[in-house]
Each structure stands twice: as C-alpha cells, then as structure tokens.
Design goal:
The protein has 65 residues and is mainly alpha-helical. The protein has 2 helices and no strands. The longest helix is centred in the middle third of the chain and has 7 residues. The protein is globular and about 40 Å long.
Amino acid sequence: MHDANDDRRPIHNRLLSALPPAEFALIKPSLEAVSLNPGMMLPRAGDAVKSCFFPNHGMVSLLCV
C-alpha cells in the first residue's frame, strides 16, 4: 500500500493503492489529506471541478434527484 505522507498516513483508497509506484509518485505531491464533516456537500452537478476526492475512510454517497 502506498503512503501519502511520509509513512504517517497510509493510503487505504483502493484506486490510489492500485496505481503503479511510478504513477503514484507523479500525483503524490498534489495529494492533501482533508477531513470532511458529516453532511458536507461536495461539488454539485454543473459546478467547476476544482478538486478530486479519494476517500481514505468512511463513505460518500451520490444523490440523484
């Protein structure tokens, strides 16, 4: 399993963990651990994409209205 922050926070995201080490090394400098509060809204459909989230723990749901 890769490690995003110098062996202090292991990556538990299966998509990131599946990357070959050389490819993971390319994006590693751009990864930033963030905490999301329950009920927090991620970008909505039509919003400009500014960030990509790779959940490490917990759950994210998609709501279609």
